[in-house]
Specification:
Blueprint (H helix, E strand, L loop, with lengths): L1 H26 L10 H14 L2 H5 L20 E4 L2 E4 L16 H10 L22 H13 L22 E2 L26
Parallel strand pairs: 1-3
Antiparallel strand pairs: 1-2
């Protein structure tokens, strides 16, 4: 009978220890993930804009094999012609007149994630914003911080042209979508933007 009492006592003590550990874990405040410094956010944003291909469209000369990084992300004159009309890669530098200098970081993040600009207009192809809807807050705000850190470059991008407008000599014309690609393409390239909006 004596071993039964010892077994019961050991079991009770073990239960008490487990309960104490469980309660201490449950009541211990969780430490928040360390936040990035402003410098780390800018560095992360530079990395992300590089691997996400932002320079491909928004840095002059990239499609010709000679990106001009002195005017990094300042927009392009190369028009993209498709069912949506003709769009031009926008100036993403913080220039107040021709870029996104008046945008907040929240405006930039909203545009990246939803395809809706600060003024409420829609971002049009070829900007692949649907690929970026699930960016983490850290990543999205790092991109915004990086864009705000760029030197402002004054460069007015050409105005978006509506569907049916004749392509300019240097525009990149994409053919109408074939049957496989067409099911989700708006008929006639329905662009809900105003003609003054740009990509």
């Amino acid at each position: 009978m004596r071993w039964t009492r010892w077994t019961a006592l050991i079991a009770a003590l073990a239960t008490l220890v487990v309960m104490t550990v469980t309660l201490s874990c449950a009541t211990t405040p969780q430490k928040a993930a360390p936040t990035m410094s402003p410098e780390q956010k800018v560095e992360r944003g530079q990395y992300l804009t590089t691997i996400m291909g932002c320079n491909d469209c928004h840095t002059p000369g990239t499609f010709y094999g000679a990106p001009d990084f002195d005017r990094k992300l300042s927009g392009s004159q190369l028009g993209w012609v498709g069912p949506w009309g003709t769009t031009y890669a926008r100036n993403l530098t913080p220039d107040l007149e021709t870029g996104i200098g008046s945008w907040s970081e929240d405006d930039i993040v909203k545009t990246i994630r939803t395809g809706t600009r600060a003024d409420g207009s829609q971002v049009l192809p070829p900007m692949p914003w649907p690929m970026y809807t699930n960016l983490t807050d850290d990543d999205a705000y790092s991109i915004a911080a990086y864009l705000k850190s760029l030197p402002a470059v004054s460069h007015p991008v050409p105005i978006r042209q509506p569907p049916g407008t004749k392509a300019a000599k240097n525009d990149w014309v994409l053919p109408e979508p074939l049957a496989w690609d067409a099911p989700r393409t708006p008929p006639g390239g329905a662009a809900t933007d105003t003609a003054a909006a740009t990509h």
